[in-house]
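Dear colleague,

Thank you for sharing your sequence with our group. We've completed the structure prediction you requested, and as agreed, I am returning the results in plain text so they can be pasted directly into your records. Please verify that the sequence below matches your submission; if there's any discrepancy, let me know and we will rerun it promptly.
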Amino acid sequence: MQPMPKTANLIPMFAPLDGIVTQIDIVVGERVTPERHRIEIADVRAMWLRMAVRKEDAGRLALGQTVRYSSAAHGQSVPGQIDWISTGLDERTRTVQARASAINPSLHSSSKPGHTGPWLLRANEYGNAQVTVGSISRAVMVPASAIQRLDDQTLVFLARPDGKSFEPRKVHIGENRNGWTQIRRGVNPGDRVAAANSFVLKSELMKDSLEAP
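Please find the predicted structure tokens below.
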């Protein structure tokens, strides 16, 4: 490469922000005017994660919830926070659009001020996002198979002291996780509930109510 000769025609251009040049729309000899954007600069230290959420799950989203994003391209998990949720459905995908902000991790171990990459996340890549919609520190959990519904009530069947029979107990339920259901009210720690074949007890309860005078 030959060094460029010094010329008085070179005019320095200063960007209003730090970032990476992502597009240059200019050719040698072209006249430059302020009305047209010639160079595009992106600050990729912070990225937006755009998510398509099933409408069945969208009601559980809230601003400020934590998001963990990962992509098969790098396999790392990147934290973010929801800062926008659409009020409508996408006409094409029939999903609810949501957005989270995330700090883009540097691929270098050094974190010197002004470091400009390379960065882990790339614009327009695809991946998966997990949203934490709630946390349960201490709770009574029962197998989901123990939950039965009768009319407008949610029931479980508690073992009586004799250990040979069960009685229905109305409960208020919460989160469902990996085959377990949270009991907010109605069951105490240590109570024994019928998990397997609880639907048989429900059938017996319905039969008794039909036969009652």
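Summary note from our side: The two ends are 102 Å apart (CA to CA).

Kind regards,
the structure core
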